[in-house]
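idk why but the lab printer keeps eating my pages so im just putting this in chat instead. protein + NAP:
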Amino acid sequence: MALTMFSDCSSSTTARLLPLNRTGSGFLHLRGSSATLLHLNPRNPRSLGVISTQRCQSSYSPTVAMTTETSAKVIDGKAVAKQIRDEITSEISRMRDAIGKVPGLAVILVGDRKDSATYVRNKKKACEAVGITSYEVRLPEDSTEQELLKYIAEFNANPSVHGILIQLPLPRHMDEENILNAVRIEKDVDGFHPLNIGRLAMRGREPLFVPCTPKGCIELLHRYGISIKGKRAVVIGRSNIVGMPAALLLQREDATISIIHSSTENREEITRQADIIISAAGQANMVRGSWIKPGAVIIDVGINPVDDPNSPRGYRLVGDVCYDEACKIASAITPVPGGVGPMTIAMLLSNTLSSAKRALNFE
Ligand SMILES: NC(=O)c1ccc[n+]([C@@H]2O[C@H](COP(=O)([O-])OP(=O)(O)OC[C@H]3O[C@@H](n4cnc5c(N)ncnc54)[C@H](OP(=O)(O)O)[C@@H]3O)[C@@H](O)[C@H]2O)c1
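predcted complex ->
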């Protein structure tokens, strides 16, 4: 993993902090220094019963609270992901009791990338913890496409396997599109199959699966009762696995979307118009305080290693958003780590459970 140089965002370039008094149902109201209300969505039964009162630690102190500065609500992805895993565990035990079957997830890893091996290990552990049977295949780096396709065909045909995940990236000599297309759409729990993405993009169509990371972003908004309908949203990044499906999901929920990418001009100005920002650019601390509209909600997908001589590993992980600055302006924000990251695996488990329920006709 290449380290990026730490782009320091401790020196404040933030816009002057304004008290926000926004009206409108189910959104955030900031008044003065400490009144941050996160309205629960009464129509969403999954809305968190208790919202954590945790706030951005780095900028919050009694002294700060006496000034005009505000401190954003921290959207706790770790806690929400745990809640979801608990729900999945009880659904799986209900399934086992009722029909004697449990969901199965097959993970295929090609090559010996350490980061990929860690992701696969974490997914396997997460499966075991909720009661999903996991199947793992590890192939050497120099395997042929035909060998990999053979395993995919076997898992496609295996009725105990309800989800198939090919750990990306694949070695360069393999055609990723060809491989991903070989996964049966009914088992495409990653949601990357073009048919799933096509259905996501079309009005009146339903994808069988939604890609896990963007699904996790939207789930966080739902569970914190943050309304999306009618809001202006900016998605930074347009990758097939995060930015593009995140924008499609927001659009399906009736937000008005702008997508920012590496050729976009006036990124700061466009982002400043957003009520909701989802950033997935992979650029450490790119989104400064001055990019953020007071009261905006920020979902930071970026995971960027930056040099940190004080850390035992010599680096630490930061998001795309300059957290310290954003905390003073946004009304709610996901931390990195502990925000979107834990949600991705939780959504994978959720997609696998839905797939099994569909295949086994279990309500
Ligand atoms: N939390 C999680 O579970 C999770 C999951 C997946 C990814 N991630 C993280 O999310 C980040 C993005 O991942 P990805 O796979 O989507 O990355 P990616 O495939 O590299 O896509 C990055 C996107 O950001 C855009 N971009 C890059 N630099 C930019 C800039 N300076 N200004 C505006 N747009 C810029 C790119 O624009 P172009 O299209 O013009 O090149 C591209 O669309 C990474 O940090 C990754 O580690 C986290």
